[in-house]
Amino acid sequence: MTVEDSHHGAEIAARTERRWATVSVIIVVVLAVMAAFAGIHRATMPQARVEITDPSRLHLSGEFAESNLGSVLEANGAVTVRAIGQQYSFTPACLLVPAETPITLRATSADVVHGILIQGTNINTMLVPGFVSEQLMRFEKTGDYLMPCQEFCSFGHEGMWGKVKVIDKADFANRAKGGGRLSCVGQ
Ligand code: CUA
User: Fold this and answer.
1) How far is the CA of 153 from the centre of ligand 1 (A)?
2) Rounded CA separation 162/74 (Å)
């Protein structure tokens, strides 16, 4: 090997190394751009579907009027639960739902931002005044769950707790026969 050959070899090695360094920098930049896009762009996009309500008139008429709150068995066998959060309680304070059934929770706030968290599940949504929060859920087993408010909503926040009672599917269907809205308040 001549001196010239080894110079030539070192040059090739240096060039290859630079090329790979460039490639790795490009990969890092692409990943950073993807992370920024996912985190910033998507977080600032509105939801695909936004439903609004008027928090000052909730109790008067419409979907969240008091007589319409609670659980209802739909014609297709699914269940819809409507609830509102207000300082410092949920209405209904105890949600009655059947096991092994697709459930849609629709809820909103009558005053400030609250949250619904059903302990022991991944069900967790914010209740924002003026907007309807919709959350799909399903319980495989009967039982009771605690449902604390998980957004600080002023001095009574610590005491804002609700409950979810999951009962047997047939039992629920029986109770739903008379129509109306079901809940487990006072049970
Ligand atoms: Cu409602 Cu915290």
Assistant:
1) 4
2) 24
